[in-house]
Design a protein that fits this description.
By secondary structure, the chain is α/β, with parallel strands linked by helices. It is built from 16 helices and 16 strands. A hairpin with a 4-residue loop joins strand 15 (405-409) and strand 16 (414-417). Helix 3 crosses helix 4, helix 4 (70-79) packs parallel to helix 5 (100-110) and helix 14 crosses helix 15. The longest helix is centred in the C-terminal third of the chain and has 23 residues, at 447-469. The two termini are 40 Å apart.
């Protein structure tokens, strides 16, 4: 039997924000990248699960339902815990487990107890069913349960026993949910959990350092997969609005967005700025009616872009825009137009001045990317948390850029992005970040994970570019390394993988 890891489980009592279920994979991968043994994490979760099962059933017998992923691995290890003293039976949904660590857990358990594979069912007088079928690895409520998970859930409901769920009840949010009497969830409550399906919710900490929560390679777990049948535009359309005094800034933003995987990147500038640009073939230029700086005269042209059949999936506004009063007013109007059309917006650089004092604009989805001076000027006496008080979930966040980026979201979300190369303290880095985040949002990522991944990508890309270019590193050297980093982190080197 596994020995208790109670001391390991009790570490790091900090509870996070209500996590999106996909954040579980983010933190797991970050933990692995920091050298934390995945099997130790699973063992810790298993011991907590077994202990909770014992609390519910006393000396009764327990039936574990184990799926093919890591949630099933938790169940396999919990079934052989000393907390249950040989009073456990196991039904596996599939003949094989699908991850290396869950397979190891299965072999470990199988060396000590018999594991039945559905539709085989052991004989037992059980007091409790433990649901380890899907957990956070399951699909959302919009997708039906697939066979054989669906059949196992139907059977488990029919035997009418108390249910302890591991992390998230199988089928959460669906009519076919395996409703739990109690749910033990790890590190933090997950979004969408409520007593109706989850029963009593118990949050158990996991033995990982706070650095696991920081931006890193794990954030690539939320990068949208590339479909084999993808066509032009499926990976998003981004509109960058900037330029006037400075024409290079919006180009850098556009290039970073394109290298993040965004299909179509449109860049709109006042005509004089546009004429000064040696336009890259990968960007689609738009000359605004204004000659020198964005003003109200260009709003009808912007509206036409937003309402056309090439309507963007996200907007970046601010790079190189300038801070003339009329420009700030026009920027405010563009943000309102985005709100009316439910288009997320990344507010960067000079456009930060168009945001309401100390507040994120009500009803707007997106990200603000001020450096510390811009943040102080915008927020004044308010904290970022106070500015976002009207925001829910992952819809909006603030990135305060610097040697360490601080990322603040709604409902207690906060993290940081560190690392990178000192040579990245060069003109244009902020433009690259705004473009990266905008490109990721345009591909369908919510603002919070897009900001996390954008910050992590840029710092790693900067490291790689600096290694290649040395002290002569320029901002335009970095975008190609955004693509290379994404390729390495996601394992996608060819279409369809």
């Amino acid at each position: 039997m596994l020995r208790s890891r109670r001391s390991l489980v009790s570490m790091n009592a900090q509870s996070l924000w209500p996590m999106h279920r996909e954040e579980v994979a983010v933190f797991d991968r970050n933990a692995i990248s920091l050298g934390i043994d995945e099997f130790d994490l699973m063992s810790s979760a298993a011991e907590a699960l077994a202990e909770e099962a014992k609390r519910m059933c006393g000396e009764g017998r327990v039936l574990f339902l184990c799926g093919p992923g890591n949630n099933g691995g938790d169940g396999f290890l919990a079934s052989i815990s000393e907390h249950l003293s040989g009073r456990a039976d196991v039904i596996a949904s599939h003949a094989d487990s699908k991850t290396e660590v869950s397979s190891r857990a299965r072999v470990t358990a199988g060396s000590l107890i018999e594991i039945d594979v559905w539709p085989s069912v052991p004989h037992g007088d059980w007091s409790l069913v433990v649901d380890c079928l899907l957990g956070a690895g399951g699909t959302g409520p919009e997708s039906p349960l697939r066979s054989p998970i669906r059949e196992i859930v139907h059977w488990a409901r029919s035997i009418d026993l108390p249910v302890l769920s591991c992390d998230i009840p199988t089928g959460l949010g669906r009519e076919e949910c395996l409703v739990a009497d109690r749910t033990i969830t790890f590190h933090s409550k997950k979004m969408g959990m409520d007593p109706t399906d989850c029963g009593e919710i118990v949050v158990c900490p996991l033995p990982w350092p706070e650095e696991v929560q920081d931006c890193g390679i794990g954030d690539s777990e939320r990068y949208p997969p590339i479909r084999v049948d993808a066509k032009k535009g499926d990976r998003g359309r981004l509109l960058v609005i900037g330029g006037g005094p400075y024409h290079g800034a919006p180009i850098l933003s556009g290039l970073a967005a394109a290298r993040s995987g965004c299909d179509l990147v449109h860049v709109a500038m006042p005509s004089d700025a546009s004429k000064r640009v040696d336009w890259p073939a990968s960007l689609i230029p738009h000359n605004l009616p204004d000659e020198q700086s964005l003003s109200l005269e260009s709003l009808s042209s912007v509206a036409s872009l937003l309402d056309s059949n090439r309507s963007p999936n996200a907007i970046v506004i601010g790079p190189g825009l300038g801070r003339e009063e009329i420009t700030i007013e026009a920027s405010t109007r563009v943000i309102s137009m985005a709100k009316e059309r439910h288009i997320p917006v990344v507010v960067d650089a000079d456009a930060i001045s168009s945001l309401p004092q100390g507040l994120w604009p009500e009803g707007v989805t997106g990200v603000a990317t001020p450096h510390s001076i811009e943040a102080e000027r915008w927020l004044s006496e308010a904290t970022p948390e106070e500015a976002l008080s009207g925001v829910k979930g992952e819809d909006s966040c603030i990135v305060i850029t610097g040697p360490v980026d601080l990322i603040i979201g709604a409902e207690g979300r906060s993290t940081r992005a560190s690392g990178g190369h000192p040579r990245m303290a060069v003109g244009g880095t902020g433009d690259l970040l705004a473009g990266s985040i905008g490109g990721l949002i345009a591909q369908g990522m919510p603002p919070w994970p897009a900001a996390r991944l954008g910050c992590a990508l840029l710092r790693e890309a900067g490291n790689r570019a600096a290694s290649e270019k040395g002290p002569g590193l320029l901002a335009e050297d970095v975008p190609i390394h955004i693509a290379h980093t994404l390729s390495d982190w996601t394992g996608v080197h060819d279409a369809g993988q």
